[in-house]
Amino acid sequence: MNSGSLRIKTPLGPVTLLSEEGALIRVFFDGTPEPSERVSGGDDKDSLLASAAGQIGEYLDGRRREFRLPVRLSGTPFQRDVWEVLRTIPYGKTLSYQEITRLLGKDDRHLRAVGSAISKNPLMILVPCHRVIGSDGSLTGYAGGLDRKKALLELERRHMPR
């Protein structure tokens, strides 16, 4: 099995990237819940990891709005459905948990399940769970911390075309 890991420094703190068989499988900030995958030294010269690190750097500098990287989302079918909806939220925009639930064709009884799936997002930043807010516009839940969520949303607002 071809896998690797790379830890990069960012203005929001260290981020670890994990790849396996030519796809990114995890992107997470230090201090987030421990991934089930083991983080080893890996091959930090891996071209996928280097490309991912470069694209994340460009995003955090305000020079990139979309990621063009192979990813593999591993989770339940419902979790993958939720994460695919997250991937459709445009740069600089937000959706509420309720709006995501509606996009999935579900009613409010599924809000907790949607929130749970979002909290298990394996690809922070790339699958933009930071773009999900409360129905009242409040910043709620982010595995990377609300300070990082606020910083990511402000970054996107600053770099939106006028």
UniProtKB/TrEMBL annotation:
Lineage of the species this protein comes from: Bacteria, Pseudomonadati, Nitrospirota, Nitrospiria, Nitrospirales
Function of the molecule: Involved in the cellular defense against the biological effects of O6-methylguanine (O6-MeG) and O4-methylthymine (O4-MeT) in DNA. Repairs the methylated nucleobase in DNA by stoichiometrically transferring the methyl group to a cysteine residue in the enzyme. This is a suicide reaction: the enzyme is irreversibly inactivated.
Active site residues according to the UniProt entry: 129 (nucleophile)
Protein name: Methylated-DNA--protein-cysteine methyltransferase
InterPro entries, A to Z: MethylDNA_cys_MeTrfase_AS, MethylDNA_cys_MeTrfase_DNA-bd, MethylDNA_cys_MeTrfase_DNAb, MethylG_MeTrfase_N, MGMT, MGMT_N_sf, WH-like_DNA-bd_sf
Other remarks in the entry: This enzyme catalyzes only one turnover and therefore is not strictly catalytic. According to one definition, an enzyme is a biocatalyst that acts repeatedly and over many reaction cycles.
Domain Methylated-DNA-[protein]-cysteine S-methyltransferase DNA binding: start-end pairs: 77-157
Similarity field: Belongs to the MGMT family.
Its EC number(s): 2.1.1.63
Keyword hit for Methyltransferase: yes
UniProt organism field: Leptospirillum ferriphilum YSK
GO cellular component term of the entry, any: cytoplasm
Domain of life where this protein originates: Bacteria
Transferase as UniProt keyword: yes
Keywords recorded for this protein, A-Z: Cytoplasm, DNA damage, DNA repair, Methyltransferase, Transferase
GO MF annotation terms: methylated-DNA-[protein]-cysteine S-methyltransferase activity
Methylguanine DNA methyltransferase ribonuclease-like domain mapped to chain residues: 8-73
Transmembrane segments: none
